[in-house]
Amino acid sequence: MFNLLKEKNSLIETIEKHLKNNGNVYIYGCAEMGLRLARFLDNNKYEYKAFCVDKEYYKNGEIVNNHEVVSLDEIEDANNNMIIVSCFHLPTQKICSLRSNRKNVQVIEKDLFFLWSIGPIFDWNFYQNNKSEFDWIYDRLEDDYSKLSMTRYFEQKLTGDFNKLKDVWRKEQYFDKDIIPFNNIKCFVDCGAYDGDSFLSFVKNYENAVGKKYDGKGILFEPDILNYEKMRKNLEGFDKISCLKKGVGAKNETLHFSMNSTSSGIVENGETTIDVVKMDEFIKEPVDFIKMDIEGVELDALNGARTLIKKNHPILTICVYHKREDLITIPKFIYHVDDTYKFYIRAHSRYSQELVLYAI
User: Fold this and answer.
1) Residue range 135-145, pLDDT digits in tens
2) Strand partners, 290
């Protein structure tokens, strides 16, 4: 049974205490994550004074989300009691300097990916309302490490505390050597192939596990034209792969698409269009491995590969972090297509993202 303890989000707890002491709150960074944090604070009635940026990015008079954008140098010269919430993965030199030299400046670095979701965020109410569904997948996980990974991932998602996943997350995303049986893989399918990095990682891990170079086929789908061109260049030395400038989905269609390097995706107001194919109709040969990281449309793509999955029982490594319901809907879909699959979960980042479901 999947049981989480109700813990206060450590970021919100710190902000609440600081505001009670009449301190000022600044958001360091005003791009996507900064805006997500700002909207979250607005929605929960927590006041923040301004956004702040490094001097080289400062523009006099800039307003974001109805708040002033100030330079970190300006903050450095101020004497008021303040906290700065960093929206960056790693502290900048300026932030490190502020932390070292200013006793009245507290820099908060928490896992802000608790705010990152396509649709509503994962919160305590969602967990409680869907506890029986989470119990279903938790009870079907094959090993204790999967259960630990699932628990720590959602604890960090709820609290923002980096310590939850600190000693749990693993590298080698999609290819955990303790789970994947590499020996019989002859056709690898990559949905959301980016610049070919996952295929190159697969080839490396295959060689390490099997003791010889991979000489099978690869079918790689990447609809972002810039990523697609990089992929073709990066994989020039492989003669048994097909690089396809297409997306995958539940049916063959043309959809609007937004290009954003590592997180390109299908959106209604996207600046371009892409061809999306149903894999059941597009792929005419047996497949042994399907990897998916396609920004929230994994369930649609699995629907379009139902026959391939049922007929071939390929290894599946599917991202289940883009939508809060992914870890409910995706394993249940796979189970109903083929109830002989065995499920594992691994967290592949120190942040509460990159959660992967392994179906073997």
Assistant:
1) 999 999 999 99
2) 189, 316
